Amino acid sequence: MRVLGVDPGLTRCGVGVVEGVAGRPLTMLGVGVVRTSADADLGSRLVGIERGVEAWLDEYRPELVAVERVFSQHNVRTVMGTAQASAVAMLCAARRGIPVALHTPSEVKAAVTGSGRADKAQVGAMVTRLLRLDAPPRPADAADALALAICHIWRAPAVNRLQQAHAAAKASRPSSNVPVRKVPR
Amino acid sequence: MRVLGVDPGLTRCGVGVVEGVAGRPLTMLGVGVVRTSADADLGSRLVGIERGVEAWLDEYRPELVAVERVFSQHNVRTVMGTAQASAVAMLCAARRGIPVALHTPSEVKAAVTGSGRADKAQVGAMVTRLLRLDAPPRPADAADALALAICHIWRAPAVNRLQQAHAAAKASRPSSNVPVRKVPR
Predict the structure, then answer these.
(1) Which of A126, A174, B69, B150 could form a disulfide with B102 if both were Cys (CB 3.0 to 4.6 A apart)?
(2) Tell me: the pLDDT tens digits for A68-102?
(3) What positions does the entry give for Mg(2+) 2 binding (chains A, B) (predicted)?
């Protein structure tokens, strides 16, 4: 499974491609940052993000794009830009028919470090170890993008099993929307 | 001046095209809503918004797109979807080189009703009167999109004068970044 992780942001949008399956060593195929200038107007910045993400999709052809789920509770000042950059990344993937998965920051931290409250340094250190890199990817946004991709690859089997169980349960029971009518013989 | 107003939203994205200049009667060229299903996944919904906005740009060829500026303070639950839909609208415009202007909800209300705290009914009533329509456009998102376009057309001369004054002031004074060095004769 090849996953492009995207840590969305207008100034620095982290991108990282990881290949592998849960339970086996993973391989990093590429990592980087799509940057746009804070001096540019918002529309141009979004076009910059689109071009950057398109270039990564063209080069690596991922099967899935994992994007950080943005919450409005945190960092009120920057959350709008983060939401807008994430929208562009999701749009680029969905337009090509590539599935998009969202993971919360604490899911990502828990997946790679064992703790949902891990700090940036811990995430960077675990990403470095898991992908057998020489040093933590810089900036932190690039490491976070790799962590998102790793999180997705590791969580995917559990998520798939859950979805299959739901579908099976749905198929085996009568729909609650259809009234059961007792017809006398 | 022909302006496409966009009241961003994932479920209902209001769109309205107004033509005219400040101080003269305005004309509505079109109004509508781009809808996406709440059952669809987020990526598909963003693709739906993109297709809808592209169709309006193709049909009306506006000179400018006016989008509501999204604040994170309000409606915390829906603000993420609003920010994401607005990003797609801005991206569609910027990709074609069409300038994007952002106006806050209170700027729009003040422009069309005289009060920044006007309610939806007052905005709808004034839009109906200003564009000489038979009835307020429904749903409210459509009326809000027209109000955004009207707001932009009316505010544009003042905004332009401000920008020109800034540019003139900047050109006439020495840059504060360059130290003034006194050379003895």
Answers:
(1) B69
(2) 998 766 666 678 889 999 999 999 999 999 999 99
(3) 68
Q: Looking at the 3D structure of chain B, how many domains does it have?
A: 1
Active site amino acids of A: 7, 68, 141
Tell me whether A76 touches chain B (CB under 8 Å). Answer: yes
Q: Is residue B128 part of a domain?
A: yes
Mark the binding-site residues of B for Mg(2+), compressed into ranges.
Answer: 7, 68, 141
Q: Which residues pair with B28 in a beta bridge?
A: B18
CB of B133 within 8 Å of a chain A CB? The answer is: no
On whether residue A14 sits in a domain, the answer given is: yes
Instruction: Encode burial over A3-19: b for 16+ CB neighbours within 10 A, e otherwise.
Output: bbbbbbbbebbbbbbbb
Q: Mean pLDDT, chain B, as a whole number? A: 89
* B37 part of a folded domain: yes
Indicate the DSSP class of residue B176.
T
Q: What is the pLDDT of residues B25-70, one digit of tens each?
A: 999 999 999 999 999 999 999 999 999 999 999 999 999 999 999 8
Q: Could B94 and A70 be called an inter-chain contact, meaning their C-beta atoms sit closer than 8 Å?
A: no
Residues of chain A with pLDDT under 50: 175-185
Q: What ipTM does the predicted assembly reach?
A: 0.83
On whether any CB of chain B is under 8 Å from the CB of A36, the answer is no
Q: Is A7 annotated as a binding residue?
A: yes
Check which CATH number belongs to the domain holding B83 and give it: 3.30.420.10
B92 belongs to a structural domain: yes
* Candidate from A42, A76, A94 with C-beta closest to B47: A94
